Prior knowledge:
By secondary structure, the chain is mainly α. The protein has helices at 11-14, 18-33, 40-64, 72-79, 81-99, 104-125, 133-146, 156-176, 185-202, 205-223, 227-236. It is built from eleven helices and no strands. Helix 2 (18-33) packs antiparallel against helix 3 and helix 3 (40-64) packs across helix 4 (72-79). It is globular, with a radius of gyration of 18 Å.
Amino acid sequence: MHEKRMSWWLWPNVLSLDAPIVALVWHLAFARTYEVPVGEVEAALLGLAVWAIYVADRLLDTARANDSEETARHAFHARHRRAFLVGILVALVVAAVLAIQLERLLLIFGALMTSLSVVYGWLVHRRVVRVPKEALCGAVFSVGVLGSLFVDPVPWVSMALFAAVCTANCVVISFVEGEISESCRRWLGLVLLVLATMSVLVGGVIHLAMATSFLGLLVLHVARLPKEATRVLADVVLLTPLLAWSWL
């Protein structure tokens, strides 16, 4: 395979660092909003778990992708498959050592999320599920990021809106990859606008951050930028809690 020079802004994406960064930002943002203490061990475990899951998912993608479907991140994972497999093994070993320090309830939650992620991977890669994979990905990601905070009472509206943010991110990327019909383009724009409005109406800094993410995804959806730029920026616009961190 011909080696191409990688643009600097693609590195977080091709190394699968984008997903764990987004996960940690929102996890800590929700923790600050609902005044839930988060230890370094819990944060590290979340980052390691998300990274390992996303790398595994991309390696499975490369096993069935043809050249016309290959993206920069898939090409990079295919070329460095062994290195990524070693990375997953190291991440799992470190995670196992860290998990010993967790409370029983967090261990149970981690085990459930691991099982759920395996089921998700099987359903998507075996293509036996009729539910859109974007919705499944958004739901699993949001539960994994927020579920371990154990907020009481459960902020169902906030969790639903965050799941919608994650799903919208996947849908926007699916559009540029040609996996969703162009006939649905206007509907997605309308849905993003409605979700942004709902987030503003709910109120609170965390929901304003979500509204900003929805609007950022809307701009990307309308702008029709090059594919790789859209993939990277679709994750960048999910980092909106950083803009209002002092007010969370």
